[in-house]
Each structure stands twice: as structure tokens, then as C-alpha cells.
Amino acid sequence: NDKIEKLEFFVSQVSQYFSDSLEILALAIKGATQLSKIIVDSDGNYYADGLDMNWVQKMKDVKIVSHAKRDFQDSE
Asked: Cα separation of 55 and 10, whole Å?
């Protein structure tokens, strides 16, 4: 029974890491797609007219929580 509880705890903790990672990956892909559309002239001026750059703020707003190995050891 104790092993099952530890496994359930592990699954509940680990699944959130993948959720954060997938959200960040999706934003990074959107950003790369938008950045590839920026026009840069020979003087180094860039033009982002008409591009959806809201992914930048979303990327800043993503809260990433890190857990140290000791957090899992403390729960034992």
C-alpha cells in the first residue's frame, strides 16, 4: 500500500513537469515561426508589422516550478 501511495505521489508530481514543458515548447515553436517572418534590411533594421507577438508575454507569464530531489525524499 505504501508503494502505491509513493507511486501515485510520483505520478502527480512528474505529470506537471511535462505539462509545463509542453506549454513552453508550444510557445517556442510559435515564436520561432513568427520570428522567421521578421524582415531585416541591410542596415539591420527589422520589421515585424502584422506579426502576432503575444507569445512573448505568454512565455514570460509561464510559471515554472522546480523541485529538488530532496523534496521527493522528504515525502518518504
From this structure: 31
Q: Hey, what's the cell of 38?
A: 521578421
Joined together, the cell numbers standing for residue 32 give 520561432
Residues sharing a CB contact under 8 Å with residue 53, sequence separation 6 or more, in sequence order: 34
Give the cell for residue 41: 534590411
Chunked mean pLDDT (size 10), the chain, 76 residues: 86 75 85 89 91 87 70 53
In order of 23, 45, 61, 66, the CA distances from 48 in angstroms are: 24, 10, 22, 34
Amino acid at 73: Q
DSSP state of 50: T
The pTM score is 0.52
pLDDT at 68: 62
Please state, in angstroms and rounded to a whole number, the distance separating the CA atoms of residues 34 and 26. 12
